[in-house]
């Protein structure tokens, strides 16, 4: 199941009534089909791993690096001109359908799954689709191996750690470096070209160990990570802006995994392969599918010690370290996730003050008691009052935490000043755009036109504003400015707040930087209602910058 993931996802915003779990299944199949066409149609080279095998690896790697190499065909005793799918003058779709047409049913069946058997009579080689590159090319997948010639690849910090930087260009740069190594290994016959990475399952529960593989609990942040990492892996330098996505070359092929709403590996004997995850469409649209959508579109040492102690924590996700927070001997706490191969140096640089950190938590650090309040198998993000379950993630949990989502310190301090900001947006509805009723809590004021469904709107309206970030300390440093939106008061069962933007900026000590945000009104103020419709509610929304100190209201008004 680990290999089941999605590559292409067309979110049916206009069909929110889609079947729940079936949706995820469909994605999986779209994914395999996409790869298949890719391998056949795009001159994706043969996987030389399968040609060579571990035993006979040579220093020069494989003899051939792509399928439709005339020399390869002649070495197989086949006439390549007899196979239109190898004719580069034909469009990809024609070549792909030719290949599929030439295969018998049993030959097709042998190409399903991770390990493709190839079709010798057509010159189609074996191929192992499963390679992994979450934070460096890894031999977890059978499509990749290390040996004397290539003993290792770069191990970057695990994803949850890189996510904490909230630095989009860093995420993309890591993807680029990983795919360069992947290509090099491929050319030497030691890796595949298809990677079951990134893992963009939103972290729903603090007990999930595989949180380490992911960018955290916020669908927007996870989606941004996905978009950057995928572009980093896939783009060939100089071809990033190809309009026709079907002809854009791929450096390697990435795959956003796993099943949406999948994040129970083994909890009290309940395993992911058989667990029946009951997911509301509302949560599916709002939380679990959002990153996929974005992916496609775009130790207790203190007491014994005498002096001050710096607690360095290596962990997949959050831990209840209340004991350390309140221990005066602990002068600092540094969470490093699982850092990459340069982790030791990086930790030293931070502890000794050479580098000023500026990360933020990509997930909530819960108190241990949180895990006693609800079973891991409860899928709803919202609180379940009837069962006494609290909400999940910062968007729906209002209780106390060890550290909240997006918490992070640096050796300096930053102050925000809000500059220009648009405070209201007036949207005139045409005759095809209708007011849509959404649920308000009892005794709340309900506006005459409570909301409009986003599918019905043009969604051109923007909210522009600028935040001046002043470094008021005495160390240069980077600050992550996180922007949230809060829905109008009284709306029933909506999120408390949601991330709608973030930027990491470097500001020298004593200096300041203006950070500009342009938010799309529909994307940033939307609410997913009980029927899983994305709607724009009218009334008083709030844009919050960082903690609650800086904020401004945005009024949405509809008229006929
Ligand atoms: C590569 O070519 C050499 C020389 O032509 C041949 O002996 C060898 O078997 C080939 N290896 C593979 C994996 O095809
Ligand atoms: C973001 O990461 C890049 C590396 O890709 C680095 O050069 C840059 O300084 C980082 N930005 C900030 C503001 O820290
Ligand atoms: C916090 O959430 C709980 C549901 O988990 C709810 O009963 C309670 O009213 C909320 N408290 C506040 C202050 O919003
Ligand atoms: C920065 O903000 C804090 C809290 O808002 C305030 O106490 C402090 O005086 C500000 N410092 C500067 C230099 O503006």
Summarize the structure.
23% of the residues lie in helices and 20% in strands.
Overall residue-averaged pLDDT value: 86
Total count of domains:
2
Indicate the proportion of strand residues. Answer: 15-25%
Number of helices: 15
Helix content: 10-25%
Task: Order the strands across the largest sheet as they lie in space.
Answer: 12-22-21-16-17
What is the gyration radius calculated from CA atoms? 26 Å
Q: Could you tell me how far the N terminus lies from the C terminus, measured between alpha carbons in angstroms?
A: 50 Å
Largest sheet: 5 strands, mixed
The CATH class assignment of the largest domain is: Alpha Beta
Stretches where pLDDT falls below 50 for ≥5 residues?
1-60
CATH architecture of the largest domain: Alpha-Beta Barrel
Taken from the alpha-carbon principal axes, the silhouette is globular
Q: List how many beta strands DSSP finds.
A: 22
Strand-pairing-aware structural class: alpha+beta
Bound molecules: 2-acetamido-2-deoxy-beta-D-glucopyranose
CATH fold label of the largest domain: TIM Barrel
Keywords: Glycosidase, Hydrolase, Membrane, Signal, Transmembrane, Transmembrane helix
GO molecular function, one term: alpha-L-arabinofuranosidase activity
Domain Fibronectin type III-like: 479-549
Transmembrane segments: 21-39
């Amino acid at each position: 199941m680990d290999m089941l993931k999605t590559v292409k996802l067309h979110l049916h915003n206009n069909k929110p009534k889609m079947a729940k779990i079936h949706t995820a299944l469909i994605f999986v199949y779209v994914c395999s089909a996409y790869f298949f066409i890719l391998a056949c149609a795009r001159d994706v080279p043969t996987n030389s791993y399968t040609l060579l095998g571990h035993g006979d690896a040579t220093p020069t790697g494989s003899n051939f690096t792509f399928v439709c190499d005339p020399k390869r065909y002649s070495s197989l005793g086949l006439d390549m001109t007899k196979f239109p799918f190898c004719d580069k003058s034909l469009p990809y779709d024609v070549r792909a359908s030719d290949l599929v047409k030439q295969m018998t049913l049993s030959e097709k069946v042998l190409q399903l799954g991770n390990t493709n058997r190839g079709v010798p009579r057509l010159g189609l080689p074996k191929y192992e689709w499963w390679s992994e590159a979450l934070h460096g090319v890894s031999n977890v997948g059978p499509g990749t191996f290390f040996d004397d010639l290539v003993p290792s690849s770069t191990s970057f910090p695990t994803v949850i750690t890189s996510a904490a930087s909230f630095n989009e260009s860093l995420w993309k740069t890591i993807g680029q470096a990983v795919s360069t190594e992947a290509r090099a290994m491929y050319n030497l016959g030691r890796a595949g070209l298809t990677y079951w990475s990134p893992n963009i399952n939103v972290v729903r529960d603090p007990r999930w160990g595989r949180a380490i593989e992911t960018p955290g609990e916020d669908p927007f942040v996870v989606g941004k990570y996905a978009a950057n990492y995928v572009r980093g892996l896939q783009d060939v330098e100089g071809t990033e802006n190809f309009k026709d996505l079907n002809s854009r070359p791929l450096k390697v092929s990435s795959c956003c995994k796993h099943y949406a709403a999948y994040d129970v590996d083994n909890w009290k004997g309940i395993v992911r392969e058989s667990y029946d995850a009951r997911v509301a469409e509302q949560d599916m649209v709002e939380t679990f599918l959002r990153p996929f959508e974005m992916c496609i579109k775009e130790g207790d040492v203190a007491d014994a010690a005498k002096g001050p102690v710096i607690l360095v924590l290596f962990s997949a996700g959050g831990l209840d370290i209340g004991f350390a927070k309140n221990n005066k001997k602990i002068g600092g706490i540094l969470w490093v996730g699982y850092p990459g191969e340069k982790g030791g140096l990086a930790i030293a640089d931070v502890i000794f003050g050479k580098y000023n950190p500026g990360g933020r938590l990509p997930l909530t650090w819960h108190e241990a008691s949180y895990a006693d309040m609800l079973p891991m198998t409860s899928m709803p993000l919202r609180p379940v009052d009837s069962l006494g379950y609290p909400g999940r993630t910062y968007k729906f949990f209002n209780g106390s935490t060890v550290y909240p989502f997006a918490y992070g310190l640096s050796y300096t301090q930053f102050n925000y000043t809000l500059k220009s900001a648009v405070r209201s947006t007036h949207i005139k509805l045409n005759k095809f755009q209708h007011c849509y009723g959404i649920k308000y809590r009892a005794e709340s004021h309900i506006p005459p036109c409570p909301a409009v469904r986003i599918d019905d709107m043009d969604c051109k309206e923007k909210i522009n504003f600028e935040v001046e970030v002043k470094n008021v300390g005495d160390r240069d440093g980077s600050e992550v400015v996180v922007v949230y939106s809060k829905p109008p008061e009284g709306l029933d069962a909506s999120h408390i707040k949601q991330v709608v933007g973030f930027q990491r900026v470097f500001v020298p000590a004593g200096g300041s930087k203006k950070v500009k945000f342009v938010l799309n009104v529909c994307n940033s103020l939307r609410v997913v209602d009980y029927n899983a419709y994305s709607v724009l509610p009218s009334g008083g929304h709030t844009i919050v910058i960082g903690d609650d100190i800086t904020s401004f209201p945005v009024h949405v008004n509809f008229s006929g």
